[in-house]
Specification:
Two copies of one chain form a homodimer. Chain A has 15 helices and 23 strands. The first copy, chain A, is α+β, with helices and mostly antiparallel strands. Chain A folds into three domains: 418 residues, Glycosyltransferase, CATH 1.50.10; 97 residues, Immunoglobulin-like (Sandwich), CATH 2.60.40.1180; 109 residues, no CATH class. In chain A, strands 3, 14, 15, 16, 17, 18, 19, 21, 22 and 23 form a ten-stranded antiparallel β-sheet that branches. Chain A has a seven-stranded antiparallel β-sheet with strand order 2-6-7-8-13-10-11. A five-stranded mixed β-sheet of chain A has the order 1-4-5-9-12. In chain A, helix 7 crosses helix 8, helix 9 runs antiparallel to helix 10 and helix 11 packs parallel to helix 13. The N terminus of chain A is likely disordered. Strand 14 of chain A pairs antiparallel with strand 22 of chain B. Chains A, B: Keywords: Hydrolase. Chains A, B: It comes from Rugosimonospora acidiphila. Chains A, B: This is Glycoside hydrolase family 127 protein. Chains A, B: It holds the Pfam family Glyco_hydro127M.
């Protein structure tokens, strides 16, 4: 066994190594807190963490067995994989993503039975690893293409990346087990093979970069960081073959620091950005951080949907051009939402800009939360903002052959989204708060407890009570506070005009992006009140596809109209809204707005002089539901952006 | 040599057999005229026919040699094709489409040198045909997959279809040569292999159906018609495997007559519709004609762009849902335009509804004419109505790997569009006029001559003089007329409010779809005046993607704004038009309209309260050019639909 990493000198990342969180930079403006320090006790996200444990993780494990992706590892061990392998070339990574989800879930709850299930999968993976560390069920075994013979599409390094992220979760939660050994051995093999003097390639799907940096942070082994930098430096220099979609598809068109905006395959672009920030932070390379931040900011301003979703093209699962954001053809892959959160989180930690927590919140509520069904046994893969034709219900026993926007499906031929949702939900607590020299920053509002040790060793303990986002009131009780000066910073979302903070009865106005309370004593009671009236939202006029429409939002939630709420189940085409009449809440997170209802009429010609088109229209009250709940009541047509009268 | 077709009794399709035109039904409401009967002498289309002969056809022949697609046939003959073959699985068909274009061009002009070039390609193809008639360079030869082992994607029957269409062109223009022998032998092989008791399959790409019906019409051999019907009856009954895009991609989801609208891959859907009409016409099966007409009408009303372009999806080159017509992601493959003309023409002939000639005109001027460059050496493959980012100029020596909307490219990995344009231009005269028992119908306005023999043997000879579409005046001189009662019907386009027809000095108002002149004597002078003032066009409000915009049209031409005409080459995003001020012609087919010019401003957030967004705007006069000319002045951004103020 060649670990290597114990032979290398750890170099000052002690804090990072011990933080029970997926991202723990050596240096940062804001430091993450581990999921052992933050507990979500219920509410919107607590409910979903429970669902993740009870339904989502078991569902994924069951399907991975059923479709044979876990058994691929057994087949490598017994030499039959060349003839029996099932799944796409990257299916190993789905098993690893599940292991990461399980690892965080075990760290969160100490679930012994889950620990045993994890170990049993790990044993099967271990049996498939080759003596030099190589590990893949699709390449390099008998009757298979040789190792690294298809870096464009083979995904071998991408798979290692997810394996390593799972191992990091284990290390950070205090385990140094077989999974960690496998991952370190694979990482050493990668360094041996793709080092500066080795094979001068990169992976067609970035992911190994962020994983290697985190493995360095978790183990202190510098060669992992160096290898991440080697991959990042090689990117954009045409080491990959050109493909039909162009080299921008896998960001091999121009070097990372030279790009102006994210482009190509959305998940690839975002994973690469995450890795680039990670490596730059460790090298104190602020120009690269700034370059990625500039690209991500422009992407948020010009290539991001109202939901936080990213990716306008189905063909290549890619970003479109600036302002090309069709709601009906929004691809908005769930994984791109997960990946956008990864980037926003890294930029938040390194820059200290709390506005990134707005992006995380928007994406969590309107992309990640939209994916699983109420039962946690079916998932959205794409997240369009307009569904023109009601989808076909999925057979709960069938693999969905397509990533089309239909109803949620139990499983997909490409099934990255379910385990990506699972690992995000399991690690969710880390996104709730950060700490720095001065105090604690409360970023996401969920009921629970937070425990931070400030730099001088003094403890802050907070108790948070809220029904957010059903309600805008968040009560923070200071259970323990430092004797010295300290700060409690509350994120104020950009939409929260008129927010107030009450500290022990004293009310102040609070403005985005944050409000800071100084030196709150133990037993202080701080009440943040965010305005939760539904509001109209309009889009930049350069987003052509939603010209002449408005959306309704309430707090962090994007709302939508569904045909099941319209007279006779009419199509959502049939609406013209009057944005002068404010929408009003009607309970349970729903909202109603007055609209002109225009039953579909027939026309002869689609183009011409159509001023007289609207007829037989009448006023109705239009119910709107949170977007994340759409399609929970059977097939429907749906739209977020409603035409104005 | 097993022709078979001489052994069978021709059965009353004599007229059809002799018509020098691609479509010649046995029975029809309107009968086509051959390209020997109609001569386009110049003008918009005459210029393009000349370009086709001088540049487009030679360019295509050169590239097909260069990329080795013609040489694939030689490689079959010498047994090396399994190792040397180049091109996609359907590249044989591109050679056949070129042969069809050459055949019509030879029929049009009697070009002897072109005849020799055609024969030399035909000889090479002949050498690749197997003794039983099988002919394909991708399957069925040594070291290749076996015949018909991949009906979903193999395109073998599709290739025969194009071979047969080329042979029909030869038969109809009086040649019974090697090409005809090859095609009939292949057709006989298809009937032998896929007959009622044979292999129960259909081709993943329809095309063989329409080709077999026309071969029946040209030869009188009924088994070809029967085999077409067998394929059409099998379609929609899941004989093909399901694929990622679903069976609707190749219209194998439901039987033809049961569909409500065209769906799936646009070219496939349209070729199938053409074949279904052809077969139904020969069987006097009016329910099937009516079903296809209903589907095509709904497609025109809900799934067709202003240009006549069809297909909203890049991913599967497919129709979108009803009203899903994004201008920026319009795929609008040039071939789908060609295919739509094929369907409209067949429906026009069988129903006699001249409004289909409006559709043909719109598609010819705004899709087909847009494809070739001014020099005839580069082509558009897709035809978007909004270009957000200026394209990269194509290297004239490079094969374009993608069907992306960039600038016109010299060649494509999938190069169906150039030869499809070439065959359409070569056969264009047939679409100009039809005849029936009563007289002649003038459908497209181009300078030239028309000669029709009415049923009683009396001749009509017309001389047409016009600068259309630069000008709306069309002068028809009756050179020869029957002594008895007869009619000359002029198509009045649906946009032509206020059209007039002057007969020997007497002016009448004329209304769409047609105006009929009775019993015009020889030497009569008939002047049609179509209003050519530029006009605003709005879209059905259910086409979400162009809400709040207008387009400008002039006669049959759709106009567009290009960034090269804006101050400082600004992006076409920067426009807000006032549809109360009429646009005005400025010569050379161009138009100008007053717009508010809004130089791009920076914004922080793309969503929010943006009422105050427009600033620093000023009025300019916006030049608009015919869409078919766009991108002729270098890279530009472009839009057809202009936002209103």
């Amino acid at each position: 066994m060649n670990d290597g990493h114990n032979a290398t000198q750890p170099d000052g990342v002690t804090t990072a190594r011990l933080t029970v969180a997926p991202v723990a930079p050596g240096t940062a403006t804001l430091l993450p807190l581990g999921i052992d320090k933050i507990r979500i006790s219920g509410g919107f996200w607590g409910h979903r963490q429970q669902l993740n444990r009870d339904a989502i993780i078991p569902h994924i494990a069951r399907w991975q067995e059923r479709v044979g992706w876990t058994a691929n590892f057994d087949a490598v061990a017994n030499g039959t994989v060349g003839h029996t392998r099932s799944g796409r070339e990257f299916s190993d990574s789905e098993v690893y993503k599940l292991l990461e989800a399980m690892s965080w879930e075990i760290a969160r709850t100490g679930d012994e039975e889950l620990e045993q299930r994890l170990q049993s999968i790990v044993e099967r993976i271990a049996s498939a690893q080759q003596p030099d560390g190589y590990l893949n069920t699709r390449f390099g075994n008998a009757d298979q293409p040789s190792r690294y013979s298809d870096l464009e599409w083979g995904h071998e390094l991408y798979c290692y990346g997810h394996l390593i992220q799972a191992a990091v979760a284990r290390i950070r939660s205090g385990h140094h087990d077989r999974l960690v050994e496998i991952a370190c051995k694979a990482a050493d093999h990668v360094c041996d093979t793709f080092g500066p003097d080795g094979l001068a390639g990169v992976c067609g799907h970035p992911e190994i970069e962020t994983a290697l940096v985190e493995l360095y942070r978790a183990t202190g082994v510098r060669r992992y960081l160096r290898q991440a930098r080697v991959f990042l430096d090689r990117r954009g220099r045409h080491s990959l073959q050109d493909i039909e979609f162009g080299r921008s598809y896998f960001q091999d068109d121009i070097p990372i620091a030279d790009a102006q905006v994210l482009r190509g395959h959305a998940v690839r672009a975002l994973y690469l950005s995450a890795g680039a920030v990670d490596a730059a932070v460790e090298a104190d390379d602020s120009p690269t951080v700034e370059a990625v931040e500039r690209q991500y900011q422009r992407t948020l301003q010009r290539r991001t949907y109202l939901t936080g979703g990213m990716g306008s093209h189905h063909q290549d699962e890619a970003f479109g051009d600036d302002f090309e954001l069709p709601p009906d053809r929004a691809y908005c892959e769930t994984c791109a939402g997960v990946a956008s959160i990864m980037v926003a989180w890294r930029l938040l930690l390194t820059t200290g800009n709390l506005a990134y927590a707005d992006t995380i919140e928007r994406t969590l509520y309107n992309v990640v939360a939209a994916s699983p069904s109420t039962e946690g046994t079916a998932f959205f893969y794409t997240n369009p903002l307009h569904q023109r034709v009601a989808g076909q219900p999925s057979d709960p026993d069938e693999v969905s052959p397509r990533a089309h926007a239909q109803l949620r499906a139990p499983w997909f031929e490409v099934a990255c989204c379910p385990p990506n949702v699972a690992r995000t939900l399991a690690q969710l607590a880390t996104y709730v708060a950060t700490t720095n020299r001065d105090g604690v920053q409360l970023l996401q509002y969920a009921p629970g407890t937070i425990h931070a040790s400030l730099e001088d060793g003094q403890d802050v303990r907070l108790d948070v009570s809220t029904r957010y986002p059903d309600d805008g009131e968040v009560t923070v009780t200071v259970v323990a506070a430092p004797r010295d000066r300290w700060t409690l910073t509350l994120r104020i979302p950009s939409w929260a005009d008129g927010a107030t903070v009450e500290v022990d009865g004293q009310v102040s106005r609070a403005q985005a992006p944050s409000h800071t309370v100084h030196d709150a004593a133990a037993d202080s009671r701080i009440v943040l009140r965010l305005p939760m009236e539904p509001r109209w939202t309009t889009a930049d006029p350069r987003i052509d596809a939603v010209r002449g429409t408005v959306a309704v939002e309430r707090g962090p939630l994007v709302l939508c109209a569904e045909s099941v709420d319209l007279p006779g189940g009419a199509d959502v085409q049939a609406l013209r809204i009057d944005p002068k009449q404010p929408p009003r809440p009607v309970g349970d997170g729903a909202v109603a707005a007055g609209v002109l209802f225009v039953p579909n009429g027939g026309i002869e010609q689609p183009y011409g002089r159509l001023d007289a088109y609207i007829e037989d229209a009448y006023d109705i009250e239009l119910p709107l539901v949170p977007y994340h709940r759409w399609a929970n009541r059977g097939p429907s047509t749906m739209r977020v952006w409603i035409p104005t009268r």
